[in-house]
Design a protein that fits this description.
The complex is a heterodimer of chains A (329) and B (332). Chain A is α/β, with parallel strands linked by helices and 329 residues long. Helices cover 36% and strands 22% of the residues of chain A. In chain A, helix 2 links the parallel strand 2 and strand 3. In chain B, helix 9 links the parallel strand 7 and strand 8. The chains are: A alpha/beta (329), B alpha/beta (332).
Chain lengths: 329, 332
């Protein structure tokens, strides 16, 4: 990459939306307050003026209605981008996503495609309490027929949307709310597409493998930096795609380091971290020198008070402690 | 039946076709019930017997490019939309040449060629999808109509209200057809709805709505033609509440403890064929011999469908995971 420019994660998403709307007339954005308000997280600010009300479509508070409408429009050949304000609200459209979008291709014997992209914010960290803070990515990653992405970097936020739109199947994109203000460098010139099939190695190391995704990546990298100061070097794997999982890359790293720590903002019971751990056990059991460690959210609804919220979530300190435990130091 | 129906061609040829389609659905499903008892068909089987006039009447108003969304009680809609009886029967058998390759079964018959998006088995779940199909057509300036069937039980679901509001708000080309057969599985309408006039919900969303005699095929066709022409003219969605009745149990597991036999018998006297046949014979539009011919033709179609399904291959188990998602090399 010759020249770069520095933008925020939010800007990356807005640029990606704008580019998609410009490149493909079948693309439109639909959701609550995406138009006049500019998006709950300001990701679509200015797009209404540029693309008009038909393509930047404000909806009533009808998650099931407009998500189902997006699925129907995709069936009829459009390329809708549905914005659901947060994953917590998406439980109101779980029926449409799980019973319709995910099933139609298989259930119809391959006759129908649902090329819809559903974006939603996820995660805690802003004292929004138990109905705006949960991380339910794993609920969607459980479902065959869906693809689930979690861009953790500005580059991926810029590139994954178009790659998702090119996919003929339903794609869910999780944007961690704490990432929107993160800054990063992207190439000045496109094309800005992203690999949506493989995990990325964000840092190389030999002593342990740290596996994470989405909003936990900055904490995990911070932990790896801090450990490096003590002479402990870690591989940091950013899953990027939560369904399908890149088993090959996970296993290759664990075979190299012999230790694995999984960082996942979901609750530990029934978590994505549990699935990753099971895959490591299935494919690299005899390469492990220590039990797999998981750093997850405490098993409670996310509380409002800041000290309790912080105590509930994965943190740099908890990750460092888990790595030291795996290394028995 | 009445003497005149606005927009409905009262000719021997057309009435014969209406009769043929209704009789085909009736005999096809009677055969399905028989095949269920011999375990050729498994899973759930929801029969449409008694309600045939609704699917047959509505489909007369549609063009090939229009779209249809139906429910899990959709054999009749599929046949009336023109899906071959062979493929529908093979689907019931779970065979590879079934309309959904045997993956859907009785509740999920679909055909991209017929723009028949299938049976949706979550009550109310098809309505938002129909809104989206209509939205896509409107955004591209097409004049297609999306026709969405559902039962009166759907009116208790949030998705019904969300979909009606969106369709009205955006003036989408969607024809909503409520087949009100009085029972949501075993729960009578008056035991589940504070508003038993379902069309009044549509009116509350500023959608034009009317009540239709769902046991009179010509009345259904008349209303559907009126609705479709308004929708195509850009007047937004339209809602029909068709009063009808299912003569058979909800599914093959239903002991029918929730309704009186007398009530069923009363409705049977108003059956779609019971009132249709004597009336058109009396008006000398068709003769008894025409009905005998139709019965004989239909018997052949059903027999051929069963033979096709019996002889059809099973999908290879190796294809189990095919079409869960598109292989990446096939990506656009």
């Amino acid at each position: 990459m010759s020249e770069t420019r520095r933008i925020t994660y939010r800007d990356a998403i807005r640029e990606a939306l704008s580019e998609a709307l410009t490149k493909d007339e079948r693309v439109f954005l639909m959701g609550e307050d995406v138009g006049r308000y500019g998006g709950a997280y300001a990701c679509s600010k200015g797009l209404l003026e540029e693309f008009g009300e038909e393509r930047i479509r404000d909806t009533p508070l009808s998650e099931s209605g407009f998500t189902g409408a997006g699925i129907g429009a995709a069936l009829a050949g459009m390329r809708p981008i549905i914005e659901v304000m947060t994953v917590n609200f998406s439980l109101l459209c779980l029926d449409q996503i799980v019973n319709n979008a995910a099933t139609l291709r298989h259930m119809s014997g391959g006759q129908f495609s649902v090329p819809v992209v559903i974006r939603m914010a996820t995660g805690a960290g802003r004292q929004l309490a138990a109905q705006h803070s949960h991380s339910l990515e794993n609920w969607y990653a459980h479902v065959p027929g869906l693809r689930v992405l979690a861009p953790a970097t500005v580059v991926d936020a810029r590139g994954m949307l178009w790659s998702a739109l090119e996919c003929p199947d339903p794609v869910i994109i999780f944007e961690h709310a704490m990432l929107y203000n993160e800054e990063g460098d992207i190439a000045s010139e496109g094309p800005w597409t992203a690999d949506i099939d493989h995990a990325a190695v964000r840092r190389d190391g030999d002593d342990a493998t740290l596996i994470t995704y989405g909003g936990s990546l900055p904490k995990t990298l911070a932990a790896a930096n801090s450990l490096a100061e003590d002479g402990i070097s870690c591989d940091v794997i950013d899953l990027r795609s939560l369904r399908p999982l890149d088993r090959e890359r996970i296993v290759a790293s664990v075979v190299k380091t012999h230790r694995a720590v999984i960082v996942d903002e979901g609750w530990k019971t029934g978590s994505l971290a549990g699935e990753v751990s099971a895959q490591i056990t299935e494919s690299a059991f005899f390469d492990l020198d220590a039990p797999v460690e998981r750093v997850c959210t405490a098993e409670a609804p996310i509380p409002y008070a800041q000290h309790l919220e912080l105590a509930a979530l994965p943190s740099e300190e908890k990750i460092v402690a888990a790595v030291r435990k795996a290394l028995r130091i | 039946m009445r003497d005149q129906y606005e927009g409905v061609e009262i000719s021997a040829e057309h009435l014969r076709e209406l009769a043929r389609q209704m009789i085909l659905i009736r005999r096809f499903e009677e055969k399905c019930a028989e095949l269920y008892s011999t375990e050729k068909i498994r899973g759930f089987l929801h029969l449409y017997i008694g309600e045939e006039a609704n699917a047959v009447g509505v489909m007369q108003a549609l063009l090939p490019d229009d779209r249809v969304v139906a429910t899990y009680r959709e054999h009749g809609h599929a046949l009336a939309r023109g899906l071959p009886a062979t493929e529908v029967m093979a689907e019931m058998y779970g065979k590879a040449t079934g309309s959904s390759r045997g993956r859907g079964g009785s509740m999920h018959i679909c055909s991209a060629d017929h723009r028949f998006y299938g049976g949706f088995a979550i009550v109310g779940g098809g309505l938002p999808l129909a809104v989206g199909l209509g939205l896509a057509d409107r955004m591209r300036g097409k004049t297609h109509v999306t026709c969405c069937f559902f039962g009166e039980g759907a009116a208790a679901e949030g998705e019904f209200h969300e979909a009606l509001n969106l369709a009205a708000l955006w003036r989408l080309p969607v024809l909503f057809i409520c087949e009100n057969n009085g029972y949501a599985m075993g729960t009578a309408l008056e035991r589940s709805e504070s508003e038993t006039d379902i069309h009044r919900h549509a009116e509350s969303y500023n959608i034009s709505a009317e009540i239709v005699d769902g046991m009179d095929v010509c009345a259904v066709e008349e209303a559907a033609r009126r609705a479709v022409s308004k929708i195509r003219a850009g007047e937004g969605p339209y809602f029909l509440e068709n009063k009808t009745y299912r003569f058979r149990a909800h599914s093959m597991f239903d002991a029918e403890l929730y309704r009186a036999k007398e009530e069923v018998e009363e409705w049977k006297e108003r059956g779609p064929l019971v009132q249709f046949k004597p009336c058109i014979i009396e008006h000398s539009l068709l003769a008894e011999s025409d009905f005998e011919e139709i019965e004989s033709d239909v018997a052949n179609v059903v027999e051929e469908a069963v033979a096709f399904a019996e002889a059809a291959p099973w999908e290879p188990v190796e294809d189990l995971l095919k079409d869960v998602v598109t292989p990446r090399e096939n990506m656009a």
